Structure formats: structure tokens, C-alpha cells
Amino acid sequence: MGGGLFVIPLLGFLFNFDQQLAQGTALAMVIPNTTVALWQYARRTSMDLRLAAVLGASALPFTFAGAHFATHMASAPLRRAFAIFLVALAAYYVWHSLRALSRPEAQRSHLWPAAIPIGAVGGALSGLFSTGGAVFAVPVVAALFRVSQVVAQGMGLALVGPGTLVNLATYAVAGDVAWKTGLGLAIGGTLSIGWGVRLARHLPERLLRGMFAVIAIYSAVALWLRA
User: Fold this and answer.
1) Are 33 and 186 in contact (CB under 8 A)?
2) I need a surface site. Which of 1, 31, 41, 187 has the fewest CB within 10 A?
3) Tens of pLDDT along 6-26?
4) Cβ contacts of residue 107 below 8 Å, gap of 6+?
5) What integer pLDDT is reported at residue 86 of this predicted model?
6) CA dist., res. 121 & res. 181, Å (int)
């Protein structure tokens, strides 16, 4: 997760895309990347498939609602809202990375009904910003269900996975997808995603959180400067 956060500001600066076009085009990369990454995480980690299914199903209708709203609002306010959202996420991840890591042995999978509102909020964010749902879900899932950072990242991918096609279709109907650029992003992302998953499994959790915070801050600053 997080590739779209890195790509969206670059599409604005390098290709002069407005916010909706950048988000919609990034989705062309997100779909194959999410599919491959989710398969890798499911194969290599101890993901709870019931939690994953609940997250994905509850996110689906809210993803459509968020995407529909995003494609009908002005570009500058959407870009600023995205930047503020990223700053909040970065602050949380910095704070979380400085905390002492706890490693409880028992996952709290019995709390699976709580995945429904998490999926709903994550789906709405995914539709609104095209990449925000998994980013929001990871710290919440990790804290609530007592899973590791790597497992929580797989759960975040499960949340956005089913809704990515709906998300892309909504942006495409609004004319907010540059297909040639998106195809290039998809090819590049798919070629590198397996390496990223393998690396994530061997990096310390605190470092993973810190790395994500850096990416989020970079994206927020880039978006705000362009706003």
C-alpha cells in the first residue's frame, strides 16, 4: 500500500494532471498492484480470511460513494483535503513508531464485527482519495485486532481490493483516467511489488512505520505546494 500516495503528486507535477485525473490514473496502477500484493501477503502472513472478507465487503459501497463525490468536486479543495489527511496519518505513524512495540500472542479475531465500520470508513477514503483506505485501516486494524504491522498491511489491501475496480470505473466514467500513463504505472508497479512484500517481512516494524510517515509527509507537502 502507499504507492498511490507517492505517484499522485508526481503526476500533478510532471504531467500537469489535476487532482481527479491524477487519482484516477493512479488507480490503474493500484488494481494490479493490490491484486498481486494481496496474494503475496495472504501466502506469506497469517491473515485472518474472515476479517479480510468483512473489510472488503463493507468497504465496497462506500468506495463508490466516495469516488462519486470526488469526481464532482473542484480539484483544489480535493487536493488540499488529501494533503491534510496525509499530514494526520504521518503524525500518527510518527507517534506510533516512537512507542514501545507490544507483541501480544493472541489475535482478537472474535471482534470481527468491528471490521464493518472500519471497512466503511476505509472504503469512503479510498473512493475520495483513491489510495487512502488501506492507509487508514492499517493502524486501526493493528491496534484493535492485535496483529503485526505486516499482517495489518495485508488486511488493508483486503479492504481496498474488491473496491478498486468500482473505484476505477467511477473515475473512468467521469473522464478522469489517462489510460496510457496508467498502463505504464501498472507495469512498473507489478514488476516491483513482490520485492516490496519480501522486504516488508524482514524490516523492523518501527522502521516500516517511519518509512511510511516520510512518504506521507512528502506527498502532503508536494500536494499543498501545488494547491
Assistant:
1) yes
2) 187
3) 888 889 888 999 999 999 999
4) 48, 145, 146, 147
5) 84
6) 29
Task: Tell me: pLDDT of 5 over 90.
Answer: no
Question: Residues in the chain, how many?
Answer: 227
Q: Using CA atoms, how far apart are residues 161 and 85, in angstroms rounded to an integer?
A: 21
Q: Are 185 and 191 in contact (CB under 8 A)?
A: no
Q: Please check the confidence at residue 186 and state whether its pLDDT lies above 70.
A: yes
Cell matching residue 190: 507489478
Which cell numbers in the block locate residue 89? 496519518
Query: Which residues form the domain of 83?
Result: 3-226
* Cα dihedral across residues 86, 92, 98, 103: positive or negative: negative
- CA separation for the pair 58, 60 (Å, rounded): 6
pTM, two decimal places: 0.80
Angle, in degrees to the nearest 10, between helices 49-70 and 132-145: 150
Pick from 218, 224, 203: nearest CA to 97: 203
Q: Is the dihedral of CA 54, 56, 60, 65 positive or negative?
A: positive
Query: What is the per-residue pLDDT for 106?
Result: 56
What b/e readout covers 181-196, taking b as 16+ CB neighbours within 10 angstroms?
bbeebbeebbeebeeb
63: its cell numbers: 468506495
Supply angle C-alpha 192, 42, 161, rounded to 5. Answer: 75
